[in-house]
Please model this.
Amino acid sequence: MTGQNHVYRIIFKKLGAVKYISHLDLTRVFTRALTRADIDLKHSEGFNPHPKLSFSLPLSVGTESLCERMTIITADCCNMDADEIFRRLSEQLPKGISLVSCSVEDDNPKDDVYAAEYEIKIYSFSSEETEKLKSALAMPELIVDKRTKSGVKPTDIKSQIISAEVFEIGGTTILSAVLSADNSEYLNPEYLLSVAAKAVCRELEPGEFSIKRTKTLTRYK
Model:
């Protein structure tokens, strides 16, 4: 493998307190971990070169994930295989971030994420409020105040919800949803909390819920 650039797909989890770090800080965490692991990355050209690593679908602050996707391109001098990169990088990551897999990709990998699956837990809903959420999601339109490039405006997000199921386990309301995640139709799962709040006519405080991305769906790998 010496003397060539190689592309690797890394899948990792982000759980616990690290869900509160920003995407920029996450990039820094991995850049520093790769440096400590002595994994040399290819750098961009120009006055201010950057290491070649990218994330498929950045998370919002406060959201956990079981399935984050990162791509790295190693430098000419790096001759490690995927297993060694997995081992070395795993040893350098902080608590809450753990690798799931590392695999070699094509030179120009296609990673077209079109949807993501989420598990939203609401801990404070009564059974009656859970039923109200079910009824709200069944409506032909779901109007929320959505942030757009032109500002915040009322938007119907119904078409961006591929599927949604609500059920109750042990007093916790669970909303399992698959949401659009392509460039033009990305839907932040926080908007489903807006639907839930509107259904029960009150705001939801941060301690009342949790959001976890459980799967990404791609048209390729």
Remarks:
- The longest strand covers residues 63-74.
- The two ends are 23 Å apart (CA to CA).
